[in-house]
Design brief:
CATH topology of the largest domain: CBS-domain
CATH architecture of the largest domain: Roll
CATH superfamily of the largest domain: CBS-domain
CATH class of the largest domain: Alpha Beta
Number of strands: 7
Shape: elongated
Radius of gyration: 22 Å
Order of helices and strands: HHEEHHHEEHHEEHE
Distance between the termini: 26 Å
Strand content: 15-25%
Length: 197
């Protein structure tokens, strides 16, 4: 079972500006590329901040004219090996909508946004079904696929059938809830000695 990482979901060709990029050029780039923010990078590609649409709007109060005066700094960054959950937590905690993604040397290699993270929940039901049945139930837990039924509809997973022990059920549910694209898991499993779920 492999969770998709920031590297899998990010936009690798990031539009960037430098400290001296003028206000109007930043506004033009946001409009031209249909984006809501741009990383501000040094000559060596290291991000030092981000200029968002909100930064441009707030700038009217104090009239900065370049990216250096407009940007929110320091840049809050993500690493390519992070899971989508790690990136989402940082965005939530720091109240940002996107994160520049940096390599081991701190150089920009992409940008991940909240809309990129939403792609996880657009994952096809068939792919979710295969991962749960083949990777989790059969390979990881060694259960017989003939004894279990997995139904997936719009990311909602319903598990039914019989498992060997009641203690296996919370483990199965937890692993299935961790699959990329799963919105909810409905437990209809039975086991010897287990009362109804």
């Amino acid at each position: 079972m492999r969770h998709r990482t920031v590297a899998d979901l990010m936009t690798p060709e990031a539009v960037t500006v430098q400290r001296g990029t003028p206000f109007k050029e930043i506004a033009r780039l946001l409009d031209e590329y249909g984006i809501t923010a741009v990383p501000v990078v040094e000559a060596d590609g290291r991000p030092v901040g981000v200029v968002s649409e909100a930064d441009l709007l707030h700038s009217r109060l104090y009239s900065p004219t370049t990216a250096e005066g407009l940007m929110s700094a320091p840049a809050i960054v993500a690493r390519p090996e992070w899971t989508a959950v790690e990136a989402a937590r940082v965005m939530e905690r720091r109240r940002v909508k996107r994160l520049p993604v940096v390599d081991d040397a701190g150089r920009l290699i992409g940008v991940i946004s909240r809309s990129d993270l939403l792609q996880l929940f657009l994952r096809r039901d068939r792919a979710i079904h295969e991962e749960i049945l083949e990777d989790i139930l059969t390979r990881t837990l060694g259960l017989s696929p003939a004894a279990l039924t997995v139904e997936v509809s719009d990311g909602s997973v319903t598990l039914s059938g019989t498992v060997p022990t009641p203690e296996a059920i919370p483990v199965i549910l937890r692993l299935c809830q961790g699959v990329d694209g799963v919105v909810t898991v409905i437990d209809r499993l039975t086991a010897p000695g287990r009362t109804e779920p």
